[in-house]
What we know:
InterPro entries: DUF2922. This is Protein of uncharacterized function (DUF2922). The protein is an alpha+beta fold. It contains 1 helix and 4 strands; from the N terminus they run E-E-H-E-E.
Amino acid sequence: MDNNKILTMTFINKSGTKVNLKVEYAKQDLAKDDIVTLMDSIIAKGVITSKGGPLMFKDSAEIVEKGSSKIALR
Length: 74
């Protein structure tokens, strides 16, 4: 089975700007606690930075599932 899930985590950086971090092929069974822990770890360890400085706060997260459907034209 193909995994078409994309986890988008949105953070607020030091200058107050939103910064999106996308992870393709996210695990099928990600729980809210897993995502919160991951985002807290990214902020605490300072592994990601942006033009507006380091990531300071969690803003939001979402999982998007991509898909496609063929359309028969003939």
